[in-house]
Specification:
231 residues; alpha/beta; 4-stranded mixed sheet; 3-stranded parallel sheet; NAD(P)-bd_dom_sf; transmembrane helix; riboflavin reductase (NADPH) activity; NAD(P)-binding domain-containing protein; transmembrane
């Protein structure tokens, strides 16, 4: 649960000794990084020589091929794009399409994010510029995902692919064991739970306790609406 989980560090000149040494330490600490290099293969070789596994580099490192005098390459390094910027909306479309063939309609539980609501602000003011800068693309994807679900629920009941839905909007993710169910706060769009971070483990725990262990029947207060959660 370190601050490194909350940001992306951009590296220029990463195949050189000093910057490379810093990059290696950052990756080993679990910090998300981006690096602008002229020869990505050379960088990957250097990282392997220093004990970095392909799993770590695949999960934590975004490599941009280019020159530091190229402003577009520098901009891409400063704000790396996702490999699949529409993964959430594509996944929900596919799930809904598959559900149309089911005899019993399921309840769809989707993990979204704070910072998407058009109603009351659900994130600390200090996080608003960070959300715009660091999460603009994934937020755009999740916004479309939510709209797809909302549009599905507007259809006549007989035409819907799902019986109902639940949207979970966590605050910024961090790693670590978490603080447990008792430390997790939740809220509605009208009265959101506002906080800075929540561990992925706590998100999974909250979903299990409130949307899996507690049956998603008509008396479940978290079904049929978005819920913000934070720790």
């Amino acid at each position: 649960m370190t601050v490194g989980n909350l940001h992306i560090v951009a590296f220029f000149g990463a195949t050189g000794g000093c910057v490379l040494a810093c990059l290696v330490r950052a990756l080993k600490a679990g910090i998300r990084c981006s690096a602008l290099v002229r020869d990505p293969a050379k960088l990957h070789d250097l990282l392997r020589q220093r004990g970095l596994s392909e799993t770590i580099t695949a999960e934590k490192l975004s490599v941009v091929k280019g020159d530091v005098t190229d402003i577009s390459a520098v901009q891409q390094t400063l704000r790396p794009r996702l490999d699949n910027p529409t993964i959430c909306q594509d996944a929900v479309r596919t799930i809904l399409a598959a559900c149309r063939g089911l005899e019993r309609k399921p309840v769809l539980v989707a993990i979204s994010s704070v910072g998407l609501t058009d109603k009351k602000r659900d994130a600390p003011i200090a996080m608003v510029p960070l959300n715009y800068w660091a999460l603009r693309d994934p937020h755009a994807d999740k916004k479309v995902m939510e709209e797809i679900i909302f549009e599905e629920m507007k259809k006549p009941e007989a035409e819907r692919a799902i019986r109902d839905y639940a949207l979970v909007r966590p605050s910024w993710f961090i790693n670590g064991e978490g603080i447990g169910l008792g430390g997790i706060r939740d809220g509605t769009e009208e009265c959101p739970a506002i906080g800075y971070t929540i561990s992925r483990n706590d998100v999974g725990l909250w979903i299990y306790e409130n949307l899996v262990h507690w049956p998603v029947q008509l008396d479940n207060p978290y079904v049929g609406r978005p819920t913000t959660i934070t720790a």
